[in-house]
Write a structure and sequence with these properties.
The complex is a heterodimer of chains A (362) and B (147). With 362 residues, chain A is of the alpha+beta class. The N terminus of chain A is likely disordered. Chain A is built from nine helices and 17 strands. The mean pLDDT of chain B is 90. Classes of the chains: A alpha+beta (362), B alpha+beta (147).
């Protein structure tokens, strides 16, 4: 596969995607030689992921959200299921070679025309300025940014979501834009578009003592089905923080709420409630009712798919039809409910606990 | 009424559908739009996408409803036009169906309901292309937005 429209003044001939990947990986290796390497290993959905950082410029931006999954062992001979090589230019002094494509090869969501095929995935999304590449044959990824300060705040709340999405593409597992809460290892998937009340509902359940897997992205295994925790973060619209006064002291970015959502790292504060996995019993679709009381009523699988599939597949580049197929399988395997979320937040965990204990008709 | 002998095909391979008991979900991965189609609309959509003409689809549906053939044909033709305008179907003169047109399920009796296609565009912004205006000396797009 050749690059789409390489710049005429580039000295090298058009390079296929695997060659550019290898060049990027070699550049990472040069960066580790320059400044040393730090490894962080975490487990998710029974798999081992190794993050190899050249220097420490990106560690503070990308590890905190994953900290609850980090294992204590870091055996260099440890077999891994995915290896992610991360570096930046500002702290390592090593520059990523120029892109092997012209500036008109950039597609929506940063996909690069001619550099995404069955083996190699490549995105560089303007706005995040992060280059991400993945080689399916080697389960190997590269993550580069010119300067760690360029990593946007939202990327810190769900690091590596694109790479995890590519890695899981041909499995029954899918990073999904949803939350999950539960009791005794059994839970519900909380799915909703922005503004539907997904984060409010999951955080109300956290405050109600329920087990918590995530509020924005969880890793779903549609074959079981189960929700696996990826990120320990929670995000709230600034105007909504007043509804959770006990969480306000936990906000990690209080000085940035004029331009960012409130970001909380729950592993630091609610480690006992943060669980790695929940067996899924149902899907709930929150809706802000404006009424005092919270109620549940059956919803169609079609309604659940209409909520889950677009928001997940359009945020994550590539494999749209595969995402759709996985989520179709999920919504057909679980009962679905519309959660009419009332203003009395204590009733949200009450209704979901009733659902999980079988007190709500399917 | 537009030509009722035209054959159609799905506009491109990145349009996927899933039919449930009460509606069909349609997602267009190229444009970021998604749709809900009611039961009768889903039958019409699927038969047209399988390369049947409006006349063939109308003939397969006619005995389910109490309307005369002209009314059924008009409803199917109007919905075909709506699906085409929504960029979900395109005329495809060379396509041929693999079998006779037949609904996949029992349909409600009585007058033929006007099929509904409900479109959602709230995800489209995610697929808006941000053109690259400036390239830095490194060859990478020049940074515009602070983090």
């Amino acid at each position: 596969m050749t690059a789409a429209g390489a710049d005429p003044d580039t000295s090298a001939a058009p390079r296929p995607p695997v060659q550019f990947f290898d060049q990027a990986h070699a550049t990472f290796t040069a960066a580790t030689a320059a400044v040393g390497e730090q490894r962080v290993v975490f487990e998710v959905a029974g798999k081992v992921v190794m993050m190899r950082f050249a220097g420490d410029g990106l560690v503070g931006r990308l590890v905190p959200a994953l900290a609850h999954l980090v294992t204590r062992t870091c055996d260099p001979d440890l077999g891994t299921d995915l290896e992610v090589c991360l570096f930046d230019t500002a702290t390592t002094g090593v520059q990523m070679p120029p892109p092997a494509w012209s500036h008109d090869a950039y597609l929506p969501r940063g996909e690069i025309a001619g550099f995404n095929d069955d083996r190699i995935r490549t995105v560089f999304e303007p706005g995040t300025d992060v280059l991400q590449l993945f080689d399916r044959d080697r389960n190997l990824a590269v993550y580069w940014v010119a300067d760690p300060s360029h990593v946007p705040w939202w990327e810190s709340s769900f690091p590596l979501r694109t790479i995890l999405h590519w890695w899981a593409a041909h499995t029954s597992v899918q990073p999904t834009h949803s939350g999950a809460v539960g009791v005794g290892g059994r839970g519900v998937l909380v799915a909703g578009n922005s503004g539907a009340g997904k984060s409010t509902s999951t955080l109300a359940c956290l405050m109600g003592g329920m087990q918590y897997v995530g509020d924005d992205y969880v890793l779903i295994d549609v074959a079981r089905p189960a929700a696996h925790s990826i990120y320990s973060t929670a995000k709230l619209e600034p105007h909504n923080t007043a509804r959770f006064p006990d969480l306000v002291p936990l906000i990690s970015n209080p000085d940035a709420l004029d331009r960012q959502k409130a970001l909380l790292f729950l592993a630091d504060h609610r480690p006992d409630q943060l669980v790695r996995e929940l067996e899924l019993e149902a899907i709930v679709l929150p809706h802000v009712s404006g009424l005092p009381d919270t109620t549940l009523r059956p919803a169609s699988a079609a309604a659940a798919l209409s909520v889950l599939a677009p928001t997940t597949s359009f945020h994550l580049p590539g494999y749209g039809p595969k995402v759709f197929a996985k989520l179709t399988r999920l919504v057909r395997s679980l009962p679905c409910y519309r959660l009419e979320a009332g203003t009395d937040l204590t009733q949200i965990p009450e209704r979901l606990c009733e659902l999980l204990s079988g007190q709500v008709a399917t | 009424m537009s030509d009722t002998t035209t054959r159609f095909a799905t506009a491109h391979p990145n349009i996927v559908t899933e039919l449930f008991d009460d509606e069909m979900v349609v997602v267009d991965f190229d444009t970021g739009r998604y749709f809900s189609v009611d039961v009768v609309g889903a039958e019409i959509f699927n038969l047209l996408a399988a390369h049947h003409t409006v006349d063939e689809v109308a003939a397969s549906l006619a005995h389910h409803f109490t309307d005369d053939a002209t009314r059924v044909t008009a409803v199917v033709a109007d919905f075909a036009a709506e699906l085409t305008a929504a960029l979900l179907l395109i005329p495809e003169a060379t396509a041929r169906p693999s079998g006779a047109a037949a609904p996949s399920r029992d349909l409600p009796s009585g007058p033929i309901p006007v099929p509904t296609l409900t479109g959602y565009t709230d995800m489209q912004d995610l697929l808006m292309l941000d053109p690259i205006h400036d390239v830095a000396d490194t060859g990478w797009p020049a940074r515009h937005e602070p983090s």
